[in-house]
Amino acid sequence: MVKAKSKQVQLTLVRSPIHREKSYKSCVKGLGLRRLHHTVVVEDTACNRGMMNKVIDMLKIEEV
Q1: Cα Rg for the chain, rounded, in angstroms?
Q2: How many CB atoms lie within 10 A of CB 7?
Q3: Phi and psi dihedrals of 59, rounded to 5?
Q4: What residues does each domain of the chain span?
Q5: Number of other CB atoms surrounding residue 40 within 10 Å
Q6: How far apart are CA 27 and CA 37, in angstroms?
Q7: What angle do CA 58, 60, 64 make, to 5 degrees?
Q8: Which of 15, 29, 48, 62 is the most interior residue, by most CB within 10 Å?
Q9: Is the pTM of this model over 0.85?
């Protein structure tokens, strides 16, 4: 059985989480972003999409 390839999204942190709410910082950390202009590739799941929507003003989002 062939497993369908899941969608992936490339995220780049373009604004600092400093002086933001603790939950915003937790979302950035949960997405795997560590510093400004750091880029990660994550799966496009409902959980990740919720975290992206919360901090959308700090991210640059591109579909891979």
Answers
A1: 12
A2: 10
A3: -115, 155
A4: 8-57
A5: 13
A6: 16
A7: 145
A8: 48
A9: yes
Where do we find the tokens 């490339």? 10
- Return the pLDDT at 5: 73
**Other residues' Cβ atoms within 10 Å of the Cβ of residue 61:** 12
How far CA 16 is from CA of 39, 45, 46, in Å, comes to: 14, 24, 24
Neighbours of 49 (CB within 10 A): 14
Is the dihedral angle over the CA atoms 39, 21, 45, 57 positive or is it negative?
negative
In words, the CATH class of domain 8-57 is alpha beta
User: How many Å apart are CA 40 and CA 12, to the nearest integer?
Assistant: 7
Whether residue 52 contacts residue 9, with contact meaning beta carbons closer than 8 Å, is answered with yes
Low-confidence ranges of the chain (pLDDT < 70): 1-4
